[in-house]
Amino acid sequence: METIDAKGRGPFIVVEGLDRSGKTTQTKRIENALVGEGYKVKLRRFPDRTTVIGEMINNYLQSKSDLEDHVIHLLFSANRWELAKQIEKDIADGYTVICDRYYYSGVVYSAAKSNPQLSLPWAREPEVGLPRPDLVIFLDLEPEVAEERGGYGDEKYEKREMQEKVRKLFHALNDSEEEEAADMVIYDAGKSVEEVTKDVLQSVSSVSLAVKQGLHPELRKVGKWKREH
Question: SS3 string of the chain?
Fold first, then answer.
């Protein structure tokens, strides 16, 4: 794996997946691998629960408060927007930014509630204009396998029916003709931690090299969908 020229922008990498699929573990392992190769790396995790908006989201996820579906969705989106400029700055300064969850989760989890007034296109609209990732890694895991992992069920969305809907929607995005499909790579998170890391680092290395070589000189923005879904 080659190091990024300090004068060029850094890659923007997102790790997505069901709850308990190993996102945080793999995010940290990607960071360690990149730092070992001489990259400058910054980690982000969404929702960022350290902000005022993030605290409201945290209370909702821990069932300490109850918010209408559209309200909590827009808070999740606002949480991403309040950090968007900092992400752009870090990338412009040559850092590889790795996010543990991003707007993919925000859109999919809201749409998975099956609220007829909160469709997938509606949920995605507030995300248009955010920094667009160079790579989105989706850690795919059967919900029943996730249930067996430690800590499952601690938060509002950690229920099998919800997780099954989320997984189906992630696969639907991957099978679509939209930009999300172009950016996403799916990996089996049921493998050992080491095997998953080996798999994801292949994609990380490829994208990082492409950015270094100037094949993607500009950080893109999330665009509007080509059609209604």
Answer: CCCCCCCCCCCEEEEEECCCCCHHHHHHHHHHHHHHCCCCEEEEECCCCCCHHHHHHHHHHCCCCCCCHHHHHHHHHHHHHHHHHHHHHHHHCCCEEEEECCHHHHHHHHHCCCCCCCCHHHHHHHHCCCECCCEEEEEECCHHHHHCCCCCCCCCCCCHHHHHHHHHHHHHHHCCCCHHHHHEEEEECCCCHHHHHHHHHHHHHHHHHHHHCCCCCCCCECCCCCCCC
pLDDT of residue 90: 98
Averaged pLDDT, 14-21: 92
Give CA separation, 79 vs 3, 50, 86, in Å.
31, 10, 12
Q: Which amino acid is at 117?
A: Q
Distance of CA 147 to the CA centre of its chain: 21
Q: Does domain 12-212 have CATH number 2.120.10.30?
A: no
Q: What are the structure tokens assigned to 68, written together?
A: 């209408």
Task: Read off φ and ψ for residue 214, nearest 5 degrees.
Answer: 80, 15
Which pLDDT tens digit goes with each residue over 165-179? 999 999 999 999 999
Helical packing angle, 69-92 and 103-111, nearest 10°:
170
- pTM, two decimals, is 0.91
The domain locations on the chain are 12-212
Identify whether the C-beta of residue 66 lies closer than 8 Å to the C-beta of residue 60.
Answer: yes
